[in-house]
Every structure is written in C-alpha cells, then in structure tokens.
Amino acid sequence: MVLTKEYRICMPMTVEEYHIGQLYMIARHSLEQSGDGEGVEVVENRECLDEKHGKGQFTEKRIHLSSRLPYWVQSVIPKIFYVTEKSWNFYPFTITEYTCSFIPRFNISIETKYENNNGCTENCLGLSPEKLAERTVDHIDIAYDELSAKHYKEEEDPRFFQSRKTHRGPLVDGWRSNCQPIMCSYKLVHASFEVFGLQTKVEDFIHSCIREVLLLGHRQAFAWIDEWIEMNMEDVRKYESQLQSQTNSLLKQSAGSPSASVSGPETSLVGVDGGGDGIQDKTLLGTTPPETPKTPTKKGYFSNWF
C-alpha cells in the first residue's frame, strides 16, 4: 500500500517571485547542509524539452546522508549511502524522483504545482476520484507549525521576521486567510517501502522527513527574501552555479566524493525542485540532448526516495 499525501504550503509572495526565491533557497540550503562528507552533490544541471510541458530544466543530484538516518534504517543499508534525485522543472509544474540502487523497493515520487492562491484548490493536480479517496491533505503553516529545535533560528522565524525591502511580515496567526500577495505549493507525495516488518515505520519516517524539509525550506525562502527579491533569472542562475561548485568541492574535500560535472550558467535556464508520480518514460521532442533522461509519465510507481 502506497502512502500518499498532498502537502500544501502557502507563502507571502507570488508564484513568479517564488520561482527566484526557490532557486536561491535550494542553492544556499544545499551548501549550508553540506559537510563531514554529507550533503547535496550536483551531478547534472541542464535544459530539457518535453512534448507536453515545453522547455524546462533537468537536474540530477546525489544526497549523501547515511549517518543522519535513524539506527534501524542504517542497519539495512550500506555504510556508503546516497540517494539519487532526478528533477524535471517545467515551472510552475515539476516532477521529482528519488532512487536508491541499494534499496530497490524504496519508492518515492513527488509532483508539484504552484498557484497564486491560499491553498483552496481541492484538486490542483487533477487526480482521479480513486486517487482523491486515497490522498491525505496536510496544510503546512510556515509560521505556526513547530520546527525541530536543531533547525530553529529566531531570525528565520516568520512570526518575528519582517522584510526590509518588501515590508512583508511578521506573519500573524491566521495570516493565510488575509495575506496579499499569497501563493501555494501543492505537492503530491507517494511513498512506498515494501519490506516486511518495516513498511509502515519507514513510510511514516519518510513523510516526517519530507514535512520537516518542506517546513524548513519554505521558512528560509521567506526569511531570505531580501537577499533574492531584486534578482532576475540570470542573477539567480549565476548564484546557483557558484554555490553548486562550492557544495561539490566541499563534499569532495571532506569525503573523497568523485568529481561531479556541473553545467555553467549558459545551460541553466529553468528551476529545480518539485515532485512526481510517474513511472515510464515519455518521448522528448526538439533539441533535447539524446542522453538527457526522459520525463516520467503517470503509469505506475518509479523506484525513488526523498
């Protein structure tokens, strides 16, 4: 049985603004979370083209995190452990898959859509009646949901933070009902771990990790708004490329990680992050390099992890 949740995360900004803020946040967060041989290594980042969604950005990353897993998970995986993330960003729609060759029955996929509203669209991702019946909706409040103590920083707390450049914030209780501008990330997450005796525990653990990451990342995207609000796409792509190189170098120095090839700003045209629930490949059209992994469709469950 696949555990399916739809996370809805509102932000005090527009979908267009969040496109820049998301790229800035992911690049900075990846660098800050890297060290001691663990973190996010960017393997590939380049343009792709899809017959349905058009021009987008394909990224592949390796997420090194074995010592951060609970003991009962570490006991069933090798010591040298990383998760592969593949993301197709056709903003404001994205697909992400997480795979692990060591654990072929570990299946995670995320499909994301962004809209300028407060999370009121009941079927944003166009699910069938059967899938709607299986889905659980979880509204994440970036200001008032509890964040773990190890990640908490008062200067990143939306209840106290106010932007100098936009004058947005602090966010008061009930802010999602009357805040303008406002947008929402709708993330449909499928999690499956088909190992007898561990399935329920692991699937619950996956979703608890996902929720914490989503809460932290979106809080940071808002708290860092003064750093990115005046950037355009060219600016944030240059910033992203610089930090990807720093992150990869940090991982290589601390853990002997193999060198990863990171494309320069000339090929970094669209964003990363998102979700998906696809399985089989779909033909890509146009000028997409033939070696670019193809966009998954919605015909089953691909082996992936988050």
UniProtKB/TrEMBL annotation:
Query: Where does this protein have compositionally biased stretches of type Low complexity?
Result: 254-265, 282-300
Q: Which SUPFAM superfamilies match?
A: Bet v1-like (SSF55961)
Residue ranges annotated for the Phosphatidylinositol transfer protein N-terminal domain, each copy included: 3-244
Q: Which InterPro entries match?
A: PI_transfer (IPR001666), PI_transfer_N (IPR055261), START-like_dom_sf (IPR023393)
GO CC, one annotated term: nucleus
Q: At the top level of its lineage, which domain of life is listed?
A: Eukaryota
Where is the segment annotated Disordered? 249-306
Any one GO molecular-function label of the UniProt entry: phosphatidylinositol binding
Per UniProt, the keywords (alphabetical) are: Lipid transport, Lipid-binding, Transport
Q: Which family does it belong to?
A: Belongs to the PtdIns transfer protein family. PI transfer class IIB subfamily.
What is the name attached to this protein's record?
A: Cytoplasmic phosphatidylinositol transfer protein 1
**Which species is listed as the source?**
Diabrotica balteata (Banded cucumber beetle)
